[in-house]
Design a protein that fits this description.
Layout (H helix, E strand, L loop, with lengths): L1 E2 L2 H4 L4 H8 L3 E6 L2 E14 L27 E6 L3 E8 L6 E12 L1 H8 L12 H8 L15 E5 L9 E4 L16 E4 L5
Antiparallel strand pairs: 1-7, 2-3, 2-7, 3-6, 3-9, 4-5, 5-6, 8-9
The chain binds a DNA duplex (12 and 12 nucleotides) through strand 4, strand 5 and helix 4.
Length: about 200
DNA sequence: ATTGAGATTATT
DNA sequence: ATAATCTCAATC
């Protein structure tokens, strides 16, 4: 297991990075507890030219500011007034690319995740949506702009071998307002046989 | 100052 | 299908 280095995040092909993040391991050490899981679903948001991206047309606000920074940090924002969303900022300064983490399969800290999610049993709903992932991992807007080199939030490589054929590309979720860009197949789902 | 809508989730 | 809930940006 090895922490992904800055140069991994600072490449300029956000679609490639979104695909490569599938099968990696997301860690958080928050509230004195370690939680971790394998990333199984991502979405790419490609800066100025992507109508679905918050930073479309270089829209630069308090919220989108961190997307313009160098890759390798977290972009966390609030959606629908109640859900935190975790994004990975990629590319380099001035290029607002990001990858939304939509789902993981839990590996560590299951107890903590259940508590945070207010659930009794581990099931598919524990961490299968961007809001759920953040809640289970304890990630909030307080972690906006945080470095992914740790010690609070980071991503490690794994021994898991991901066959490219197991990654399915589909249109992104919940962005009907983006016009033609709503059809771009920039959502990536890891397809594995399940019980 | 007000308003409308959003990268969602859990429940009816 | 819909309520819950709050930030942002566009408009007055």
């Amino acid at each position: 297991m090895k922490n992904l280095v800055e140069s991994f995040y600072q490449r300029h092909d956000v679609l490639l990075i979104a695909k490569e993040l599938i099968g990696k391991s997301l860690f958080s050490y928050i509230g004195k507890t370690l939680t971790a899981g394998i990333i199984i679903e991502t979405e790419a948001y490609r800066g100025p030219e992507d109508r679905a991206c918050h930073a479309f047309n270089h829209r630069r606000t308090l919220r989108t500011e961190v997307m313009f920074h160098d890759g390798g940090i977290a972009y966390v924002y609030l959606c629908y007034g109640m859900h935190n969303m975790l994004n990975i900022v990629t590319a380099t300064s001035g290029i607002p690319h990001a990858v939304l983490i939509r789902a993981i399969t839990p590996t560590h800290g299951l107890e903590t995740m259940l508590q945070r999610r207010n659930k009794m049993k581990v099931d598919r709903t524990l961490t299968n949506g961007p809001g759920s992932v953040c809640q289970a991992f304890g990630i909030t807007r307080d972690h906006n702009g945080l470095s992914l080199q740790g010690p609070t939030l980071w991503i490690e490589d794994t021994d898991l071998k991901v066959d490219p054929l197991q990654i399915i590309a589909t249109p992104r979720i919940g962005i009907d307002y983006a016009g033609p860009d709503a059809n771009l197949p920039w959502r990536f789902v890891y397809y594995s046989k399940r019980t």
